[in-house]
Amino acid sequence: MTTAYYCMGGGLGHITRFAIFCRHFTLRPALLTNCGLVRSGMIKPDAGPIMIPDEADSIDLDSFRTWISNAIECCRPDTLIIDAFPGGILGELCDLPALKGIKCIYLARILDLSAYQSRLNGALPAFTKIYRIEQLGDEQQNWLQTLQAPVEELTLPYNSRPVDEKSYHIELPYNCWLIVHSGSIDELEQLWQFACQTAEVEELSPNFAMVSPGKKPEFLPETVAHYNCYPADSLIEQADRIFSAAGFNIMQQMKGRREKHLVMPMKRALDDQFLRCRLANQR
To answer: What is the C-alpha separation between 158 and 16, in angstroms, rounded?
Structure first.
């Protein structure tokens, strides 16, 4: 039996979820991804083969459908696990002939449903199972029922990840407030200002640190440590407070430690971090 995993989307969220899902189910599937950090070699997923579209393959919907079809034909999976976007990130999986005879499983997390549905033009894959991996809004939950597949709750084990040598050899400063984010420089600066303003309001003087891909942002003072490591589990464990956006992974990871987690939801094209934050606050 051969399994492939569809893992398209920006940032680190999709590829992080891929790693945790595969570890949970002891899978080593073929991986279809456009993650820039996989492309650059910074992240080396435990998968085989790994298929990454070129820029020309992603230039428009037709080109991307062709690439996806060829990738599926290349690995000939019995099962395709589709992360986050049931019809593909652009709608490329709708009415896709290459999926005929393939068992499709959908990992359902929060979507900006109206924005996502505007990308769909055709029938979604016929799913044999849906894993709901977080609480959804009522509208999306009702839509999920129309897909006519059994829905199973799945809580991914974010607190049972293997030791990462890089982060586990880093010791944070005493009383450290850590900013964790893999987004743009502008978003990193917003989180930095959020952390500074929180310290000012509370009349505290913590040590600050930041973990994010790439080089240290220029706006950070020299006294603030910056770490370019992935994953950052050890740093998160050591920190006295965590400042982040409201992406799926960090919200799952911090679910049992909400007292030290301060969240600034960010606007996303297909995710709804504001809804995720509201639902978390209702629990």
So the answer is: 10
Architecture of domain 3-153: 3-Layer(aba) Sandwich (3.40)
pLDDT, residue 11, reads 79
282, 199, 267, 183: CA torsion to nearest 10 = -120
Segment 8-24, tens digit of pLDDT: 997 799 999 999 999 99
Place 165 in a pLDDT band, splitting at 50, 70 and 90: very low
Between 240 and 159, residue with greater pLDDT: 240
Which residues, 6 or more positions from 154, have their beta carbon under 8 angstroms from its beta carbon? 107, 131, 132, 133
Tell me the C-alpha distance between 205 and 273, whole Å: 29
Residues of the chain with CATH 3.40.50.2000: 165-282
User: Are residues 245 and 265 in contact, defined by beta-carbon separation less than 8 angstroms?
Assistant: yes
* CATH 3.40.50.11190 residue ranges for the chain: 3-153
For 20-42, write each residue's pLDDT tens digit: 999 999 999 999 999 999 999 98
Tokens of 185: 């420089």
In terms of Cβ atoms closer than 10 Å to its own Cβ (0-12, 13-18, 19+), residue 12 is: buried
On the question of a cis peptide bond just before residue 217, with omega within 30 degrees of 0, the verdict is: no
Domain 165-282: CATH class, spelled out: alpha beta
